[in-house]
Design goal:
CATH superfamily of the largest domain: EIF_2_alpha
Number of domains: 4
Structural class: alpha+beta
Helix content: 40-55%
Shape: elongated
CATH class of the largest domain: Alpha Beta
Number of helices: 19
CATH topology of the largest domain: Alpha-Beta Plaits
Strand order of the largest sheet: 2-7-6-5-4
CATH architecture of the largest domain: 2-Layer Sandwich
Radius of gyration: 37 Å
Distance between the termini: 81 Å
Length: 524
Amino acid sequence: MHEHFQMTVADVLKRKHFEKAKVIAGHQGVHRIVKWVHVVEVTNIHHLLKGKELILSTGVGWKENESLLCSFLQQLIECDASGLCIEIGTYTSSIPQEVIQLADDHQFPIILFLQEVPFVEITQDIHTHLINRHYQMIANLEAYSQQLNKKLLSIGHYYEILKFLHHYLGHQVLFQMNGKEAEFVPECSEKKKREWLAYVEQPSKQTASQAIQLFHNDYARLSILSTAQEISEFDLLILDRTATAIAQHLLRDLYVEEKKRLAEQEWLKGWLEGEHSPQAISAYLTEHAPQVKAKGGCVVLCKFPSAKLSKDVTYFLLLFRTIFEQQGFHLFSIQLRHSLLFIFVNKRDVNTWKVRMHAGIERLLQSEFMQAKKSSVTLSVGKFVDNLALLPKSYQTAQETSRIQQRLGKKIASYFYEDLHMAKIVSLMESSGHLRDMVNEYLAPIIQHDEKHNGKLLETLKVYLACNGSKKETAERLFIVRQTLYHRLQKLEQLIGDDFMHPEKRLAMECMIYAYEYLPNLLE
């Protein structure tokens, strides 16, 4: 266990110039940390202090004025000063009882020099000591970092790093990965664990926590607790170095794990092709994800703009996995020629899967990695299935979603197969080879009339159908007068018949308008 490089009022009292000094108030505050020493002879000092300063004064600022001294002391307490040292004799002969009581109430040490002392020598002595401690702290921090780096080369589990941190600082150590139980070094009772967990959640000078980030996402949290003293700046620096080392270790493990997953892809491909029985799928999950209680799942297809995946594919896989596992999914990945397939096994409430999936997609697209790469990865989410043996169906629908996205581009506003509705119908009709003829059958007269007369009959028909035949609303949305609308509707009746608002024909008309707008080259 190493020293914590903090100088306290009690340490200062042991220095040679304090041999004949006496603590007359705030005895319980001698543990206060001292970061610097100031000589102050003015009574308005709010703007001069930063906290943790030991104040030396002859009292010339307040002399025998009790109210000024109380105000001065109150400012020191509010500024989190370490203590007040007063030279008795020249300007101050005694300390009022009210001042002593105020100091005791706030555990703020008041120290009296019973004889004249050289303030310049006191400041020089303490400042030299503080600076030397600072240099020693830097040297110790560098030595700790070197030992930590050596350990990273040989350890098999991050628990060794946690033990090293505890041994070095002597503090209680807590480590908690997202979604997992906290680990304690040294081990303690269940009651104590609950107390420590509650303790680190509350802001305190005796606790400190550091988030461990992977791919700019919080992956775990490392905390230290001290029961004997405040957490020092040195403790915080050690905590930061240790968190970085654990992040490196976890990242290395994730890379190894990701490489291992790539070797299992053949089995996963067979799963999506329907080659495995429900029993085989259950056995695979038991072996590779024993902690997961599957509640359905789906397939997500990620397509990249280039003909082949970039060299950053492993990083992308880790980023993708980190984000969506935090949303309650267990992932299996399959790397294809120029795309990635992900099997999402749902671990939480089935009713929230889509909300969580959408939140994960937004986080992925807004990540620094995606923004920096300016990558236009296309995400296609297949149908959610309650039975994992039916994942081939989700795979097929993910492929269908991808085909529709490629065909319609940015006109498609959703990543989910179940949201495509009309697009699925149009895609099915297009695959049958009859879509062009159907659009011609219903819309060709209108389109030809608009092209010949620079008209807006198709737009009028679309809005009129959307307004459920309301002439008033249609005119308002088109910004035309009723008479103009009546004229256009009469023309539409001439071109396509006066029965276009008949339920069945109306549905067909709406479908064909959708097909024509999103596939405008149908009639070329």
